[in-house]
Predict the structure of GNAT family N-acetyltransferase.
Amino acid sequence: MPERWTQRLELSDGRILTLRPIEPADAEPIRQTFPLLSPEEVRLRFLHPIKELKGDLLKRLTQIDPRSQFALVVAEPLPPGQALIGAVARLAIDEGTLRAEFAILVSRFLAGQGLGTLLMKQLIRWARLKRLDEIYGDVLDENDAMLGLADSLGFRRESIPDEPGLVRVRLDVRPLSRRLSGAALLSRKTPD
């Protein structure tokens, strides 16, 4: 799988980076670079302040189950464990469903380069390959960058009851043929 999801990226400022699946060896570089994120970047991604990544959370973020989770990083073109990580995107299937929750973090050092869009398109691609119905994410209503990205890719917004300040964005990732056949089934009258 790694080669299928690996790309060499050249940013507009000339930096060369690698888009690739996350590896367990990325845990230490992620832990070390986490303090470089601004408190605002952390809050917008995790929805509350976190001072450091450690223990179970770090393990959960870097040791994924490929049957139900997918995660990519944008990193220096060095081996996992040595490369600094500048962006992370992940998708986790809700147990027993065909829905998955996404999360994306692009550090301010790489912002404005189109990486959020690239990462989200890769998450959508993986979701379609897994034949999921939907991907979704909970976003702070002040996170204009993430909401704008979601809007540009066709996500629809909805409020979350009892969660003021949060917006859920959803994208139907089923192929058109599956959407149309599902709509046809719903439109049929059921016998009395």
